[in-house]
Structure formats: C-alpha cells, structure tokens
C-alpha cells in the first residue's frame, strides 16, 4: 500500500479528479481512506434513489471514503450545510470543490479492481484480483 495525500482546488470535480489519479499513477486499485473540505455544489445519489440529487450552497465535507478502479469509483460522502444539517450518499460527478478538498488515498499497486454487474442487485460490484501485467508498474 502506498499512501497518497491529495489537495484538490476550487472548481475541481471531486469524483472525476479522484478517478484521474489512478491513470496518472499507473495503478488500477485504490481506496479513499478519508477526505475533508468544502463543496459549492454536490451531486449525491441518496439511498434507494435512481438518480443523484443536486445540493447547493456552502457545504462542508465531513467524511469521504470509498474505492477507486479504472472503470469507476464507489464513493460515499457525508456533508453538512450552513445550518449544520447533515446528508450523505453516493458521490456522483458534479461535486465541485469550493475552497479545498484534502484527501488521503491508499494506492494498491499489487491489485486490480474492476466493477462487474451483479445480477442479484443490478449494480456493478467490486471485483478484486491480483495485478496482472496489463499495466506497467508505477
């Protein structure tokens, strides 16, 4: 495991930025251990919902965790608004950093993560394999 601290800047798309890290570091598996910061807009798919809900305003990232694969991310985040109300859900593209996002990743260069459709749930599920030779070493 290789720890990788990141800082995202205002205007960055949180999810797209994290997905891009894997290709940049030439790994195909990572976990988001934690993240804090702020967003100006969030796109969260709430539990049981088919589509993301847009949440605007000054939002504090309380928690951010999940897994990253070359074919997609599975991220959960909890946010607090300016009144202290908390909401959480699955992170979709369109979560825009307001002032900063400070994130700690664990890169897993000896593993490959993929997302494969699970017939039981209808959702892509994480599949973990030892790293093949399809990617050059980091």
Automatic annotation (TrEMBL):
The UniProt record lists the keyword Nucleotide-binding: no
Database matches in PROSITE patterns: PPC
InterPro entries, per the entry: PPC_dom (IPR005175)
Gene Ontology MF terms: DNA binding
Name of the featured protein: DNA-binding protein
Superkingdom in the source lineage: Bacteria
Lineage: Bacteria, Pseudomonadati, Pseudomonadota, Betaproteobacteria, Burkholderiales
The PPC domain, residue ranges: 1-129
Signal peptide stretch: none
Alphabetical keyword list: DNA-binding
């Amino acid at each position: 495991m290789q720890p990788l601290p990141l800082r995202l800047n205002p205007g960055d798309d949180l999810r797209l930025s994290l997905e891009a890290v894997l290709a940049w570091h030439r790994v195909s598996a990572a976990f988001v251990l934690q993240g804090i910061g702020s967003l100006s807009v969030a796109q969260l798919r709430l539990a049981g919902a088919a589509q993301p809900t847009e949440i605007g305003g000054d939002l504090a990232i309380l928690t951010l965790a999940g897994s990253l694969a070359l074919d997609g991310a599975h991220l959960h985040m909890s946010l607090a608004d300016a009144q202290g109300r908390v909401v959480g859900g699955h992170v979709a593209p369109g979560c825009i950093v307001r002032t900063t996002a400070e994130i700690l990743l664990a890169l897993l260069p000896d593993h490959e993560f993929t997302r494969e459709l699970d017939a039981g749930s209808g959702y892509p599920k994480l599949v973990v394999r030892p790293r093949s030779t399809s990617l050059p070493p980091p």
